[in-house]
Design a protein that fits this description.
CATH topology of the largest domain: Rossmann fold
Low-confidence stretches: 1-5
Shape: elongated
CATH architecture of the largest domain: 3-Layer(aba) Sandwich
CATH class of the largest domain: Alpha Beta
Largest sheet: 6 strands, mixed
CATH superfamily of the largest domain: P-loop containing nucleotide triphosphate hydrolases
Strand content: 25-35%
Number of domains: 2
Distance between the termini: 37 Å
Structural class: alpha/beta
Radius of gyration: 24 Å
Number of helices: 11
Length: 307
């Protein structure tokens, strides 16, 4: 279970940020609850800029942001004391061991040295670096460096951790290991915001999604609510009258989309009954019938087309 919080995990009101004449964030208004939140969008959508504003590293050009109920503009130091941050780019000291670096990160957060050493040992074990904790970081593989960055982000037991592209540069096995670690953070009372352009990573780890495109919010909401679908996919036998079936479906008020040889049907009434009646009217046979699964990619592309 993630740490309970009376306030929303993150909320913004008309939040904007510009780099000179280049506007990176446009009037963002959203509220997300405690849990595991996915911040998704293409490269350049404004994800990293938003995280830096939420951390108080960048000042908003306009509007406000609150993290764990705290106004970031008014009290960025308190916000930083309660959160962890795993940046997209490696910022690790290559000439230090993982143990020394993680102890140092814990001490920076105000943990006494003896307790910091124990915390570092525990966290490095959690992320799978116990055997390598006394090796120099410069000798680490990409996956090991990503684990070390995650360790420093959570060694002080934050209420919330920001993970900016945590699977960048990892091979498939390393990606699966990192996603498994992210999923487990909630067991230790740590809320998570994962920023990624890899939508399948968000689908496998998060409960809530904020979609950005061009610095604007496309959609936000619970993952199940966004990706849930009432559509049904129908694949007809090869010699059937596709046009006749489609016409019969539309006559009954169904929305129809053709994707290759599959007819996707969405209806306010029971789609299965409408499909049955349309097939009977057209005298068509069916090869396959299945509930449609809408992915984050489908939603993202559809939202972008409607902009």
């Amino acid at each position: 279970m993630t740490a309970p919080t009376a306030e929303p995990l993150i909320s913004t009101s008309q939040l904007g940020h510009a780099y000179g004449d280049v506007v990176a964030l446009h009037h963002l208004d959203f509220v997300v609850p405690a849990g595991r939140v996915g911040l998704v969008g293409a490269n350049g959508a404004g994800k990293s800029t938003l995280i830096k504003v939420l951390l108080g590293i960048l000042d908003p050009t306009e509007g406000t942001a609150r993290v764990l109920g705290i106004d970031v503009g008014e009290d960025p130091i308190t916000v930083r004391s309660k959160v962890g941050y795993m940046p997209e780019e490696s910022c690790l000291p290559l000439a230090q061991t993982a143990a020394d670096f993680t102890v140092y990160a814990a001490e920076l957060a105000g943990i006494p040295t003896k307790a910091a050493r124990q915390r570092a040992s525990d966290v490095l074990t959690l992320v799978g670096l116990h055997e390598e904790r006394f090796r120099y970081i410069g000798e680490f593989s990409t996956g090991m460096k990503q684990r070390a960055m995650l360790a420093q982000a959570i060694v002080h037991d934050p209420e919330l951790v920001f993970l900016d592209e945590p699977t960048a540069g990892l091979d498939p096995a390393g990606r699966e290991d990192m996603l498994s670690l992210i999923s487990r953070l909630g067991e230790f009372g740590i809320n998570v915001l994962v920023s990624s352009h890899v939508l399948t990573d968000i689908e496998s780890t998060c409960d809530w999604v904020v979609m950005l495109d061009g610095g604007r919010v496309l959609r936000t909401g619970p993952l199940t609510g966004i990706t849930g679908s009432d559509a049904v996919d129908v694949e007809l036998l090869g010699d059937n009258d596709h046009d006749g079936v489609i016409a019969a479906l539309r006559t009954r008020g169904a929305e129809v989309e053709v994707r290759g040889g599959v007819i996707r049907v969405t209806a306010n009434d029971d789609a299965f009954d409408i499909i049955r009646d349309a097939l009977a009217e057209a005298g068509a046979g069916m090869r396959r019938l299945s509930q449609s699964e809408t992915s984050l990619e489908d939603i993202f592309l559809a939202a972008g087309d409607n902009e």
